[in-house]
Amino acid sequence: MTVVLIVALLTGAILFGIGVYGALSQTNLVMIMMGVEVMLAGAMVNLVAFWRFLHPEAYSGQMFVLVVMTVMALEMAVGFGVAIARFRAKGSVEMEEAEDLKG
Amino acid sequence: MTVAIVLLALLGSAWLLAVIEGWMTTGRLSPAAPLYSGLAHLGRESIVPRSPDRVFFEAAPVLLLVVAVLGMAVLPLAPDLIIADLGTGALFINAALAYVLVAVIMAGWGPDGAYAMIGGWRFLGQLIAYSMLIVMPITAVAMRAESLVNTAIVSSQAGLWNIVYQPLGFVLFFIAAMALAFRAPFDLPTAEGDLGGGVDAEYTGVRLAVLRLARLTLVVTLASATTVFYLGGWHGPLFPPWAWSLVKTLAVAVSMLLVGRYLPRIREADLMRWCWILGIPLALVNIIIVGLLILVVP
Amino acid sequence: MYAQAFFVAVFGLAAIGFGVVVFRTSSMVRSALALLFSQTAVGCMFLAMQTEFLGVLQIMMMATEMSIMAIFMVMFMMDPGGLGGMDMSHQKRFSIGAGVSAAVVAIAVALLSDWGPVAEQVPDAEAQTRALGMELLGRSMMIFETAGITILTAMIAATAVAIPVKNLASKDNKEASE
Amino acid sequence: MSSDLTINSTGARQKRPSLLQKLVSRALARNLSCLIVPGPEVALAHGLDIRAAGLRISTTPRDASVLMIVGDISEKMCDAVAVLYAQMPRPRAILLVGGQTPSTLPGADISSGLSQDQLTEAVGRLERAFADGAFVDSPEEFDSSVLHARIEYVCPMHPEVVEDEPGSCPKCGMDLVAREAGESTPDHEHHHDHEHHRHEHEHYHDQEQQSHHDHEHHHDHQHHHDHKHQHGESDDHSEHEHSGHDHGEHDHSGHDHEEHDHGGHDHGASGFMSMIEVTKDLPRSADGLQMDWLEVPFGPVFPGLPGGLKLTLTLDGDGVTEGQATSLVGMATEGEGSEESQESEGSQESEEMDADTFIEHLASAIPLAPVSYRLLACLAIEQAAGLSDDQATTQARNSALERERIASHLGWLAQSGRQLGFAWLTQRASTLQLKVRDAGRDRIAELEPELRTLGTRLERTPLLKSRLKGIGVLPVDSSDLRGPVARAAEDGGDAWARLWQRLDEIAASLELLKSGEEPELPVLRDIGNASGTGKATVDTPRGEARLSLKLEHGKVKSYKLDTACSHHIDLVPKLVEGQELGDALLAVGSLDLSPWEVIS
């Protein structure tokens, strides 16, 4: 059974890596959000694997996944809200062009 | 075996609907018409538009068909006549139906045509209108059954069908189901008068045949879901359970088809407004009423 | 067990494959739908790991979420969208480095840790759903409710941010003074 | 007419040895669906019941196997028809009903006269043709000049470089990109460039030209750019092709990815193509977002619009930002020697025409209201000849006019039903129209209850009022309104009011018919060899039409026609602007424009 756990964890790790790459390398706000979603998916895989193979009696594990899903939805809602506002004001959601956001 | 029976029932129902649809458009009731129509589609050329997104263009009709069949797989025709009695069957239906949207978007984007694209995005635009009204009434149904298992949902209606127990939910679900199957008067993504066929417009030949079959199957699946959730599934006197399931499903499906004939297409803005202002609050009220009933009536 | 390992691996590979496609394709709609299928594959992994409720929920939620993503992609990325010779990515090496190191660290932890005894059996889906419901409305109710309120807040906030500014004139002045 | 009853080779499909083939052919023959050109309403006006003849009416060319051409069609329509034919999947056939073969098409497979019997018989032949000849050994490509646009090759970087052959740019060495000649020139501010998908021509069948129903391609930017990139993913240098949008002013020079690698903060200097630059020129939608607009043609053969009317709408998503209507079948200056329109009002100076010929000409040019125009011509000529009114004839003629008014309004109802996806209305109204079309007074009296229930039913139809109320409200200052549109203007002036106006007119006409004479087709009285000028006005179903003409020795020397639809068509831009697509089309539909009566 450990094999399955390891497989799941590896998948989670790789998905997380892809997400990190995406979130950092993309210049477009929407694409960055996609990167974050992939990262969260990686995290969820791990959480489910942990729940299933290590603590199937603790349902807070599943609860945690639900919260992550909520976070994904939140991220989308807020992200798109911001994206629309920026697009309306600047005509672009490219991070390269977000000079005004630089500290 | 079960798989074969359910698929056969699905196909048979789709055939019946096709006959009725043919009767509505040509005025002739010809049992062989769907067969000829299918063969004719095979004989026709299947045109690929000039610069399609090939993957989406090809995948969309198939995805729609698969989704409809998957949805049917978790709906019981009789206590033991169900392909997969999932522990989360009621939720699974939602999940499967969510991909109708994906298929329509793919069909809209794939062919690279303006009409199709507008149709696809239109369907996405209507998302809140129908998807919330699918999910929330099902929630109330699951509350009464205290289970997400579809067979348990049917069993919970042994004494009183849900259409009586929560008529509000039934009405909302029926309307939302029609909108989800994009049948008239909710045929916004395929509107002929507005979009010359919309997402259907660029499909020909075999692909069109698959698409048509998928759309009919989707109606059957949704009708079957209505039966399971609201019309007491297989319950009924005299006849064997599967017969009751079939009869009810077909009745719902035919009524879905007929309603559209006598109504003009709804305005998108109206659909959206009514769903937000009326539909969703009513669905919440339905949940509250059912909750109260469960608490009050033992 | 092998069957389970097989399915988890297959869906895992699918998730990874589609995940890569997300950032490799230049079509915005393809990007969004690749992400959708990646997330669906993740949902299938949940199913393979006998976590039915979460799996189905994941599959359901992502369909709508990513479709919405698709339309926003088309809206905001307009015509360039990584086309027209415009490179949509930046700090590539750094990103690859960061991505690879994050993955490597996680993999190392996964491989090197001693995970101890592994549960062989889990309750069936129905029991799980019931138990999860109990958890939601029992011990974790606070979290659950907080999540609900947060979603509501986010919805309102996002809508407020997104609707057009009524007073365009004053906004333009502000922009000009910037 | 082919004697061996096969489909001509541009319509048949490649024969493949298969046992199924015979069966499939039979199925094809039993499953004929036709696309009617110019439109089903014309077929109805000619009294053809397509369904009774055994054909299914298809709304799109993609779903049709028979191209049915009713009556003679104009030059402009010929081009559109060729495109439609090309879009239909093989096996396909052409059915000519009472007209000539359009020059752009191969010969008709089956032709028939303009009557129900002949049509039914022709459909029988068509079925046999499909059963026997749907598959042939050597199908031909359907090729017509209208399907081709000259392809030229331009350098994405240097708009001035235009070559006839593919190759590389003499200035920068980049591969040249194919585009259709006469299309967008790169220095426009922004518009919808169509050229980017052209070089994929050879990949697919011969059919795929057009975005549906018309031969203009209107894809939006992102859409096909997107696809193109997909195609180009395999080869590296295709990267260059993508750089050639016609945002000519932007800097495309540095596609070198290396430059971005280190953070890319210096985007001003690097090759980074700014989104701000790209979007700043784009039009802003009503909601303030800069979006690409899409110019989409609707028509000339579009299920929601009268055939022959071409509506070009600029769409911003599902909303219409601007629109324009043109008629492809309008009373143009066809044939008849050297005509020049003297005024925009639409006057025609044709060669001398015999008075009877003139009447026939006018009546056949307007298939949707032939009786009215026949009457109009008769009146004008008789006045020119100095004949005084004859009580009995006038009454009979007026009865015929009222009967046509009922039929025409029913036809409009059927058309609205098509547009609204209201199948019941379409079927009911067209059945009634066929019955009323040449009914006598007694027959109409029999039909009266049915006609009146139609109104009651419509009143009780849910959703209909909310669909039509407030749609297509005419601008307050609109002048030159005539007919039902004008009469409904006092009543709110929206589509709902126009629907009721027409229903009321049906009722009023019924009353007039009941008290009037037996309807009789207007026939010109003997005018001898008279000369003079005449003027007449007839209240046609779509509004007043005025005709003035000059008669010399019993021949029509010149005439001037003024119709309601020529004025109404100018309302279209105002009606569609800022509306949602469905509402805009409904608004146009509610005007009951007859493209035939538009004088160009």
UniProtKB/TrEMBL annotation, chain A:
Its EC number is 7.1.1.-. It comes from the Bacteria. GO terms for biological process: ATP synthesis coupled electron transport. The chain crosses the membrane at residues 6-24, 31-51, 63-85. GO terms for molecular function: NADH dehydrogenase (quinone) (non-electrogenic) activity; quinone binding. InterPro entries: NADH_UbQ_OxRdtase_chain4L/K, NUOK/Mnh_C1-like. Keywords: Cell membrane, Membrane, NAD, Quinone, Translocase, Transmembrane, Transmembrane helix, Transport, Ubiquinone. It is found in: Cell membrane; Membrane. Signal peptide: none annotated. It is a multi-pass membrane protein. It catalyses: a quinone + NADH + 5 H(+)(in) = a quinol + NAD(+) + 4 H(+)(out). GO terms for cellular component: NADH dehydrogenase complex; plasma membrane. Belongs to the complex I subunit 4L family. NDH-1 shuttles electrons from NADH, via FMN and iron-sulfur (Fe-S) centers, to quinones in the respiratory chain. The immediate electron acceptor for the enzyme in this species is believed to be ubiquinone. Couples the redox reaction to proton translocation (for every two electrons transferred, four hydrogen ions are translocated across the cytoplasmic membrane), and thus conserves the redox energy in a proton gradient. NDH-1 is composed of 14 different subunits. Subunits NuoA, H, J, K, L, M, N constitute the membrane sector of the complex. HAMAP family: NDH1_NuoK (MF_01456). This is NADH-quinone oxidoreductase subunit K. It comes from Marinobacter vulgaris.
TrEMBL record, chain B:
Its main location: membrane. Keywords: Membrane, NAD, Transmembrane, Transmembrane helix. It is a multi-pass membrane protein. GO terms for cellular component: plasma membrane. It is found in: Cell membrane; Membrane. GO terms for molecular function: NADH dehydrogenase activity. One of its GO terms (biological process) is aerobic respiration. The keyword Lipid biosynthesis does not apply. It comes from the Bacteria. It holds the Pfam family NADHdh. The chain crosses the membrane at residues 55-78, 90-111, 123-143, 163-182, 242-263, 275-297. Belongs to the complex I subunit 1 family. This is NADH-quinone oxidoreductase subunit H. It comes from Marinobacter vulgaris.
UniProtKB/TrEMBL annotation, chain C:
It comes from the Bacteria. One of its GO terms (cellular component) is plasma membrane. It is an enzyme of class 7 (translocase). Its main location: membrane. GO terms for molecular function: NADH dehydrogenase (ubiquinone) activity; quinone binding. Its EC number is 7.1.1.-. The keyword Ribonucleoprotein does not apply. Keywords: Cell membrane, Membrane, NAD, Quinone, Transmembrane, Transmembrane helix. It is found in: Cell membrane. The chain crosses the membrane at residues 6-25, 32-49, 55-74, 94-113, 142-165. It catalyses: a quinone + NADH + 5 H(+)(in) = a quinol + NAD(+) + 4 H(+)(out). It is a multi-pass membrane protein. InterPro entries: NADH_UbQ/plastoQ_OxRdtase_su6 (IPR001457), Nuo/plastoQ_OxRdtase_6_NuoJ (IPR042106). Pfam families: Oxidored_q3. Coiled coil: none annotated. The keyword Cytoplasm does not apply. NDH-1 shuttles electrons from NADH, via FMN and iron-sulfur (Fe-S) centers, to quinones in the respiratory chain. Couples the redox reaction to proton translocation (for every two electrons transferred, four hydrogen ions are translocated across the cytoplasmic membrane), and thus conserves the redox energy in a proton gradient. Composed of 13 different subunits. Subunits NuoA, H, J, K, L, M, N constitute the membrane sector of the complex. Belongs to the complex I subunit 6 family. This is NADH-quinone oxidoreductase subunit J.
